[in-house]
Amino acid sequence: METGEEFGPWLARQLRLAGKTQAELAEELGLTRAAVSAWITKRSVPRPTVMEEIAKALGTDIGTVHTRTTDTQAGLPVTWYHRPGYPDGGRDGGNAAAFAFDADVQVLARETCQNSLDERLTENGRPVRVRYTIHELIGEALEAFRKAVLWDDLHPHYTAVSESASHQKVGRVVDAGVRDMFEKGRLVLLRIDDYNASGLTGDDYDDGKFAAVVRRQLESLKSGRGAGGSFGLGKATLWATSALGMVLINSTLSVPHEGRTERRLIGRLELPWRSVDGESYAGPAWLGRPDPDSPGAQVARSWWADEETVERLYLTRDNDEPGTSFLIVGAHDVASLDQSAPDRDVDDEDGDGIDDDGTRDIRAMHRRLVEALERDFWAAMTGGGSRLPLLETSVRTLRNGQVVLEEEKVDPIRSQPSRTRALRSFYEGTTVDRLTEAGQVALRHVPFKLPLTGGRRGTLGTHPAVLLVTEAEDEDGVPNQVHSLRGNRMTIKKSGVAGLPLGVNSFQAVLLTGHAAGETVPFAEEAEEFLRAAEPPEHDRWGQTEELTLRWSHTAHHRIARLTTEVNSAVKELVAKPKRAGGEGGAKLRKALTVARKAAPRRGTGTTLPELDGLNASIGEAGEWRITAEVKLPRADELPAMTPVVLLDVRSGGRPRLDWAELVAVEGCEVEDGVLRFSPGARRAVFSGATDVTSHPVRTALTRLVLELRTGKGE
Questions:
Q1: What is the CB neighbour count within 10 angstroms for residue 17?
Q2: What would the pLDDT profile of 324-335 be if each residue is shown by its tens digit?
Q3: Closest CA to 488 of 201, 195, 208, 113
């Protein structure tokens, strides 16, 4: 049974909630004020017979007074508090942090699972368990839930937002969410539960995890040294995935607050500025118990809920293990509209006849969540030897409490067999120096030279990153890829290897850096810190960032480019087939291959420029163009620097120029500030890169790519 709060602090809060003074309680009990004061200050506790009288005075039952695991229901009721409009007339059209991410359940899975990994309780050595529950409500269940969240109190605010929807993006999303709920009679809840995590500890307002998540923006208070998040933006995906802008939270704390740990509830609503009954409201609102210490007892704070309330809000947790449950109300998945049509055909297998626009297809949500977890967290879910997995995940789908899709435990071996084999072999110490048989895993240490901070020249030290290479299998997806990880073992960067020798067997490679390479590896802590600073809010690549520039230098990202070059060279050496000494097989292969050659041009007196000789391009998972280009280099004592420029092909007018998010030298060149400088004596050069999706004027799938090499800075 849960241990309740000490009697004195509990009674003091109940008196504030009920609006009673110590003197008034003493008068009702027929005791002196000094006796009540002694209880409050913990100098004494009342006799059992007096406990019954206290329960009557507070309008509650004797069990609540004895256990003290929840507040009494008397006095200030749970309600919505809406932040008043700014006195200077300023208006917000929504929470800007939510625009950093798309309404995409796969992005949600990446951000929330990363947060749970960061908050894992490490003392017991067990993994953090994260479960995603998709729950569609229809009919009476929907009506009961609307009543539980006090929808009648919220309705005027949603109406005000809908009336001005055409002027704001957030307003249009909310208006569509409300219409879907009423016109189609359904509401999709998406709940994320984590266990063996720290929970939202700390005070409602002071510095702590609770305030960082519920009260503040752009604040990150992570527990672990190798935390994945650093911007405080990931939590915004919760509200971005809600078409109603509503998220409810139930947290079980690892460290008691107010003497308790279980059923700490709060709700937060993100709406744009609105005017209701002549009063203006700034945007956010909170569901909670009015704080009697706030002016007019208006500000809502978290409250300790009873089990019945938690059940009505679909926030009941499995056990008393620390962690947090986030309930996204009105979940939608706009990115699913880009998926194939079959995803939207399966929802009617139940014969329920619910018309679906694809954004609330609960079966497609289920599948996409599983795919994202397999893709991004396969390494965190892999163990071996004495190392346990850091993470366990599962997905289940319900409708009105009935199972639609059984709970599916995510198994990384199913979709990432080669990479999980490589990581397990590393943990078990069964790697080899070179691949000679199927199923082997080759290990190579790759030097990562870390720069000095503060713009100083020189190297702090060399961190030996761990490269693992093994034979690819069909289930792995795209072959010949390198997945790069650091401490929390979430896949950060995925890249191909350009310039592979002819005829190599398909492979998969894993690069372990920072704490992922080992806690005792030299400069693991420094590599972890450096690479974390080199990640954008999406944590999906390493490159130039503002933090990297401020803390190290504007050229610090070149160290990452050199690491990539070292990794690619090591991969090519490991997968290259040994040369035969003039055997028959080599002669037959040469006869079977023909390469068209152009006649060599006459040498002129002018300067000879490098020219593009090959280009491979594909669209990445984030919608970026990912390219690998080969440059033919003429014979010359000195070659001019060239700038690769990526453009969109259009029918008329100038070609829009895209920005590079990443530009990396692979072979025969170096990249400095977006300019290629070629190695003396090289006859070919290879570079790779990815475009910045924020510079794309239209969706990538609707465009054609043009790559040019320009002299100088390429202006």
A1: 22
A2: 999 999 999 877
A3: 113
